[in-house]
Structure formats: C-alpha cells, structure tokens
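Key idea: predict the complex, not the pieces.
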Amino acid sequence: MDNFTFYSPTKFVFGKDTESEAGSLVKAFGGSKVLIHYGGGSAVRSGLMGRVKKSLEASGIPYCELGGVKPNPRSGLVYEGIELCRKEGIDFILAVGGGSAIDSSKAIAAGTLYDGDFWDFYCGKPIEKALGVGTILTIAAAGSEGSGDSVITKEEGMFKRGTGSELIRPKFSILNPALTQSLPAYQTACGITDIMAHLYERYLTNTKDVEVTDRLIEALLLTMKNEGPKVIANPDDYEARANIMWAGTMAHTNSCGVGRSQDWNSHNIEHELSALYDCAHGAGLAVTMPVVFRYVMDHDKARFAQVARRVWEVDTAEEGIEAFKNFLISIGMPQTMGELGGKEEDIPTLVKNLCYGDGRTGTIQGFVTLDEEDCTKIYKNML
Amino acid sequence: MDNFTFYSPTKFVFGKDTESEAGSLVKAFGGSKVLIHYGGGSAVRSGLMGRVKKSLEASGIPYCELGGVKPNPRSGLVYEGIELCRKEGIDFILAVGGGSAIDSSKAIAAGTLYDGDFWDFYCGKPIEKALGVGTILTIAAAGSEGSGDSVITKEEGMFKRGTGSELIRPKFSILNPALTQSLPAYQTACGITDIMAHLYERYLTNTKDVEVTDRLIEALLLTMKNEGPKVIANPDDYEARANIMWAGTMAHTNSCGVGRSQDWNSHNIEHELSALYDCAHGAGLAVTMPVVFRYVMDHDKARFAQVARRVWEVDTAEEGIEAFKNFLISIGMPQTMGELGGKEEDIPTLVKNLCYGDGRTGTIQGFVTLDEEDCTKIYKNML
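Result:
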C-alpha cells in the first residue's frame, strides 16, 4: 500500500426531509448570505426550492438565486455566478442539484475570491481561497457532494477540465434519497453507471497488496449490481435509492481508493465525448468502459478476473467485462458511440483534444499509458 | 435505512515514517504546547518517542510527557493528566499508543477545561469543550483514532464506562503500519478480534434493507479474515499490517454503520470481564462473541446465515458462528472465561454490574434485549 492522506471533513446529513436542515447547516458553517445555485425547473416544480428557501428564512439567512446549470456545466454561467456573488456580497453557495450544480458552485466559490480568470484553476493553478459550499443532492451519481473536485466545460473549444482542492470541498451535504425518486429512468441509470465508473477507476491499480480497498470497492460494486435494477424497475423504491445514494457518496470520498494508484483513463476518454456531443457523462462512460477494459485487460488479467469472480460471479476477465457490459445494457445504457451522436470522422479531433489537451503531450496515463494510436483504436472500437 | 448524520473530520496520515509529520500537524491544528501521553516503555525503547519529540522540536512546539497508560485505562492517570495540563498550560494532547492511550488522552482533553469531575462525562453529561487531540497509533484495534468515543475504568468499583463527543474526536491520526510490526502475536490477535467485533456489532441490526452497509462491513470482515493470519504467521508483513490498520480505522469511523440500529451487547458483556479481571479487551471479546451470537441467533437467523455465506463461505447461521470461533482460535485467542481468569462464583457480580451499572435498570439493549437471566446464562456458557 502506498502512503496517503485521507481527510473528508464534510458533514453528511442523510435521509427523509433532511433538506429542512439547510438553514441551520449554512448558519453552523458560517454562512450569512447565500447564493442558491441550481439547474432546471424540476427543483422548483417539485417544491424542493420552496422548502429550501423556507429553511433559510427560518434561520434568518438572506439569499439570491442563480438557476440554469446544465449537465456538463459551462464556464459562462460560472462567470455570471461570480459576478452575482461579488455584487450581492454572498459568502456561502448552496448547490441544489446533481454533480453539475455542485461543480459549478465550487467554481463560483473559488472564482469569487480570485482576481484573475477562474479558468486558471482548471489549468493547474492551485486554489488559495473560496467561499463555503453546501449541497442538497438530487441525483446519486457524481460524488461531488463528498469531494473537493470540480469539472467544468469551457465553451470556447469545448474543453472539459477538472480541478481539486480541499477549499472547495462541501462543508455539508444533504442527501435525501426521496429527492431522487422523481428522476427519469435514463438519468437514474446514468448515475448508476457514473458511480460504478468511480469504483472501477479506483479498482484498476498498479499497486500491489491492497486487499482492504479492493474489498471495499467490490462491496460498493455489489451494492450497485443488486440495488440498481430495483430502482430501474421501481423508481419509488426508497430503500434501494438510499443504498445507491450512500454507495455513490462512499464511492467518491476516496475512502476506498486511498493508498493505491488509480486509473481515470475511461473518464478522460469519455470527457471528450460529453464535451463534443454534450451527451450524458454516465451514458458516455457506459460506452467507454467495456471497450477500454477489453483494450487494457492483458496488462493485469488477474485483477480483471478477481472482480469478475467477486462481483460478477463469473470466472474470467473477459466474462467479467461482458457481464458488466450486459448489466449496463440491462439498465438502459447505450453500447456505441453512434448512440451518443458520435461520428467516425470526429475521432481525430477527439484524440487530439484527449492526448494534447489539458497540458498533455501525446499520451494519457493511468492503469496503462495510452498514446494517440491506442486512443484512436479505442474510439473506433466504440463505433 | 434510518436517517443519519455522518461527520468524520479527522485527518488520517497513513504510511511509513509518517510520525515525522507530528510537529507540523499539531501546528496546523492550532496546538502550541503539547502533552505527549503514552503507555509503557516500548514506545521509548523502539525509538518512536525520540522521533516524535524531534518532530515537535523541529516545529518549535514545546511539550511535556505523561506515560504509564495501561490497557483498560484508569481514571487515576486521567486526573493526573488533567492536573499536569492545567499546571503546564497545555493546549493539545498527542496520544502515542493504542486505544488506551487515545481514550485516556480524550478524557484528559475534556477534563482539563471542565470545573467538575471528568467522570461526569462518563455518566452521561455532555462534553462542552475540550483541548485538541492528535494520535500516533501503535496498534490496530480500538478504532479510537477515528472516533469521538472514549472508554475509561474507574478504580473505585472498577466501573468501565464510555462517553462520546465530536469535541474529543482526534484532529489528526498518524497511522504507520510499521509501528505495529513489533507487537507480540497475542496483542496483534487481540486487535484483530476487537476490529472484527466492531464490525459484528454493526452487522447485527434490526434495520431492514441496508445492503450498502452490510456489504461494506462484509468487505472489512473479509479483509480481516484474509490478512489476519498473515500477520500472525509473519509479524513483519508490512502490507498485511497496512490492510489491517486501514480496515481497523474504517471499521470504527462508522461509515459502514450509519443508518442502521447496532448491537454492542457483546462489548457491554465483555466490558464487565475486562473491568473485573483486567484481561485484554480483544481476548474477552473472543470468548464473548461466539457465545452471545449463538444465544441470540434465532432472533434473525437469516442475517447470521448471510454473513456465514458471504464471509465464511459456509451455509448456515450455526456454521458461520462456528467458523468465526475457529478463526479466533486459529489466531491464538481464548475460548473460555476461565482462560481470562474468570470464575463461576463471580457471575452474580458480573451480571449485577452489567444489568444495573451505567444507569441500566435490569436489561441491556441491542440486537436483542437481554435481562439478568439471559446474561447469567451467557456468562455460564462462557465457562
């Protein structure tokens, strides 16, 4: 096991009706004027926004609002949020939504207190200070509610890039599984896929003798395998929603990924797809992972065979990848790039953005180092 | 799943040579004068204390020392520590040792800032403030490095009682698995047993539909089952020590115990044994758990059968308990109360202390409610 530091000082408040605690939590973590940052109208229509506002009012906390966060959140709205926070003297951002609203909130939190362009943080500059962030999660997927990470897409060039800092880790995250019951099946399945991707990206390691983290990752994969189909069959299954929600958070706090090298090549390969085609990140991952896994399998077949046996109850590396792919299909995920709107003629652009964007110099590095030729083959295998 | 709050703001610094970071960590968490609180001479003889002092000196942090913490730590040394902290103007306590040194440090941290008797906190009074606590762990067992709990034994009457508060949760915990390599096999095995007990106490729940936490607990039990025998066979196996150490911490941060009722009857029944006979807590648990599990098994046989299948690879509740018992014997743990120094004629005293101590009124309540008659039978079954 490698040396590591694990620090996860986010307060998770989990369960039914917990959004009513938003006001007291903001107050406890020092917020005195809040920006509520959210996505589309569903949070308004469902009555959630009303309950959140009521909770803030009950704690005597003034607020303003900025909606309109889209999946694969954009830099344009971040700039707008930064301007609003400065103008209104906001000191705390409350994200209401999924990973997109949370990641956008984190960008605004860091950008508001920075004189330069917030995009600098997504090009490698360390964040030095940030407003406090809290979240009210409405989809189990990204794990951003329990991490210091944020991914934003810059409109010019459609570059999708990430940053990470303890300073933008949520002070608290409110997790009410009931809020996810109204999600369409496709979005639910995208979330399930994203959570499983966070687990596989950690599972694919070159570090030896990591039994405890192997076992924890397998535990969460087994949870997703067993509970995922339940919520697809019955969206109102609160208990299955709850199991998935906590698994999604635990999958990405990194408690199960410490002390080991990690992969993240599937995420990097997928990010180019969702940046160019604006497809759902989870759907892109469903297409990407089985292809990437087959491509890199021979690098450590015993590892793929281990997860095959322990999670998928089959014997070989190949069968395990096939079982995972079939699972993804069974919950309604796509299998090909075409289903995401992808075209063969875009592959050179995808590969160029992937292998030379984000400061890279011709390769992406993870479980296996992949060069332009590898990535071209991988995208072709997704067609 | 029940509603819950999970908050674990301890910074874990894990791996080889990490004790060299003690000084900078104390400083980062606001300590300016430290009490190093430790047990016997092994930390001195091994050179660990020297390295810790060097690290504090390098950060310019003055310190004084209080050694002599014993297993099942006593109130007498806590009073001594409180007096010393007040006299020396200590604002941070650095525990060097296992659960006993850490629990004693937590008691001193709370007691120093309290006008009354610190024992009040162990009789139900909430802690209102405390000095900062950091830990350097030398045995994987108690999980106190990642919890806000503390258990102390009061000499008068030999009452062993616990308290819990976020205020005494360690700010940081340094986990260097190499420090555990010098432990005798018996102490190592006691630690393994204690960790597995923390998992079983959470596994035995009356809450339904808790797949994610079931799976996480099973993952950690599987880790202990696989890695435990390795360190008994080869005490210098760093990798196995590392897997056990992180499993031990994760077993008790409660990330795998949230949202479900828990048991803790085995701990309560054992506490009377280690209070009266001063036996090792882990050894007491090894004798207690199989007997208690057989006694309560019929309350939810399916649950015992589930852990039997998923962890012990046998089919029935009975076989799973037997497999666990045989595992404990295989690592050198005792099977009977007699091996702990226990005597049949003490049973009425044990039962009286158990069922009427700590504010109880004739029963202990957990997975199953047990009365005096039940507890008498259980102690008799341990003979």
